[in-house]
Amino acid sequence: MTGAASLDALFAGQRAAVEREPYPSLATRKDRIARALDVTIANQQRIIEATAEDFGKRPELTTIAADLLYPVNHLKYALKHVGKWMQPEKRKADFPFNVLGAKAQVFYQPLGVVGVMAPWNLPFALGYAPLAGVLAAGNRALIKPSELTPHTSALMAEITAQVFDPEEVAVVEGGVEVASAFSAMPFDHLIFTGGAPVAKHVMRAAADNLTPVTLELGGKGPVVLAPGADVEKLAGKIVSVKLANAGQACIGLDYVRVHRSQLDRFVAAVKDKFAQYFPDYANNPDVSYVFLEKQRMRLAGVVEDAAARGAGVEVLGAEGTVNLANDPAFPFVLLVDPPMDSQAMQQEMFGPVLPIVPYDTLEDVAQQIRAGERPLALYFFGGTRDEQDFMLRNTWSGGVTFDDVLLHALTQDLPFGGVGHSGMGRYGGFAGFKTFSNARSVARPARIDLMAMEPPYTQKMVRTMRSLLKR
Questions:
Q1: Shared domain check, 322 and 203
Q2: Which pLDDT belongs to residue 97?
Q3: What is the pLDDT of residue 470?
Q4: φ and ψ at 130, to 5 degrees?
Q5: Which residues are registered as beta bridge partners of 189?
Q6: How far is CA 462 from the centre of its chain?
Q7: Within this chain, do residues 178 and 104 fall inside the same structural domain, yes or no?
Q8: Confidence (pLDDT) at 366
Q9: Which conformational region is residue 428 in: left (phi greater than 0), alpha (psi within -120 to 50 degrees), or beta?
Q10: Which of 329, 362, 388, 398 has the most crowded CB, counting CB atoms within 10 A?
Q11: Contact of 82 with 30, CB cutoff 8 Å
Q12: Active-site residue 348, yes or no?
């Protein structure tokens, strides 16, 4: 459905459905999760084609890995574990109530209607992956996909309507006006994935309704190569992951810190691996387009600024930097040793531009990371356990992966989310179930009513209460 009027009608229908069914059964929840899972798998080829049409060019493998497997794995995990998650959690009642039979537990109750705002870079995955936690927790959902990927958004709306009553899950299409109206709806929870500037507007709109928000943003995710790292071996992994989806990923590899003694070797290894992986870059079927002109213009400006500030510029896959903003097959650009106050080190890259900055000590690296906005992900390669522990304790990020990439975000039993400017709240697995639930504290009294302190107050009552004031 399209437009703000349909949004109001859909929200009213879902709110009425919550009133009729405030606590969906396990069978109902599993059925809804299964429908979301099945419709994704059944329409995988159409999703591949729709995203390719929106991007202009996008490898099939990229869509399978990023836009299909990601939500499929979330939904499968929720389907398997939702029965366990729904069980009340036992907690300990305080002394002396516990020894007299008092009981305490946490009862997870559905919130009601949850809004999901998905971005353009993973247009299907980030609309459907949150449904795992939303539906497992017993909620209804309205999804607002990005207007910048209209073919994927239309397909999502079509296939969702095939398997869900609009009072269960529905997709609302539309542009900026609809997105603004969507964020201002009195949802019981709102999850937004995108950039920090837009997130601030979403949060302001949600605040009028006191709607709690989960923000999955991004930031400058550092890749730190320890002094003893095998830079030649790691260059291949960094090139392949950096250029997946043309670097347009919130948990992507934003920039690399490499020990000064290994800088030249690392840059040479990156260039060698790029030439090996992406011959005839502009026409290579494994290359995704940077299809938004404003993104290309922004990236071209970052490169120009770095060059003007004395950074080394290596353009791989194209001749020079003159027409960077004009070609959706934006080349792979290495910015070697850009200043810390350059755009390259202040903006999230979100594209195929890789700043490479030498360091002298890991203490310097940790200090630099702490000085900036807190990123969504941090990657550390090749260090000792002591060096890993140092980075873990002396930096901030939403998540960390050692000696690999993306792993913390792909592990279902780990909560996924950011900190500071990279976001707030967590989803995925049990963490997502809890995010989209009301953790309701439940207490059942002891056999003896110790709280019966009706007047007149006696000295015995005072002595009893004083007896509890001790370590």
A1: no
A2: 80
A3: 85
A4: -65, -20
A5: 114
A6: 53
A7: yes
A8: 98
A9: left
A10: 398
A11: yes
A12: no
Are residue 357 and residue 328 in the same domain, yes or no?
A: yes
Measured between alpha carbons, how far is 421 from 425 in angstroms, rounded to an integer? 12
Write out residues in the chain with pLDDT < 70, as ranges.
1-4, 320-322, 448-453
Query: Residue 45: which residues within 8 A CB-CB, separation 6 or more?
Result: none
Catalytic residue among 216, 232, 319, 363: 216
Alpha helices in 281-404 (DSSP H): 293-308, 343-346, 362-371, 385-394
Q: Is residue 362 part of a domain?
A: yes
Query: What does the pLDDT read at residue 100?
Result: 76
- 447 part of a folded domain: no
Are 376 and 248 part of one and the same domain? yes
For the question of residue 216 being annotated catalytic, the response is: yes
Looking at the fold, whether 236 and 167 belong to one and the same domain comes out as no
The reply to whether 466 falls in a domain is no
Tell me which amino acid residue 15 is.
Answer: R
- Provide the 10 A C-beta neighbour count for residue 276: 10
Question: What integer pLDDT is reported at residue 468 of this predicted model?
Answer: 78
Query: Which of 12, 67, 4 has the alpha carbon at shortest distance from 41?
Result: 67
Q: Is residue 445 part of a domain?
A: no
| Domain CATH for 350 | 3.40.309.10
What is the predicted pLDDT for the residue at 449?
67
| Residue linked to tokens 């896959």 | 317
Question: Do you find a cis peptide bond into 456, omega within 30 degrees of 0?
Answer: yes
- Contact yes or no for 140/167 (Cβ under 8 A): yes
SS3 content of the chain, % helix, strand, coil (to 5): 45, 15, 35
Q: CA geometry: angle at 321 spanning 317 and 323, to 5°?
A: 95
Assign residue 154 the CATH number of its domain: 3.40.605.10
Residues 159 and 136 in one domain: yes
Per the structure, the count of domains in the chain is 2
The backbone torsions φ and ψ at residue 452, rounded to the nearest 5 degrees and listed phi first, read -75, 90
Specify the amino acid at residue 191: I
With H, G, I as helix, E, B as strand and everything else as coil, classify residue 341. Answer: coil
DSSP of 428-451, one letter per residue? Answer: SHHHHHHHTEEEEEEEE--SS-TT
Distance CA 185, CA 362 (A): 46
Q: Are residues 255 and 176 in the same domain?
A: no
144 and 42 in contact (C-beta within 8 Å)?
no
* The pLDDT value given to residue 451: 59
Looking at the structure, do residues 239 and 364 belong to the same domain, yes or no? yes
Q: Which domain holds residue 321?
A: 222-417
Angle at 366 between CA 310 and CA 423, to 5 degrees: 95
3-state secondary structure of 110: strand
Cα–Cα dist 162/373, whole Å: 42
Question: Which one of 21, 250, 314, 454 is the catalytic residue?
Answer: 250
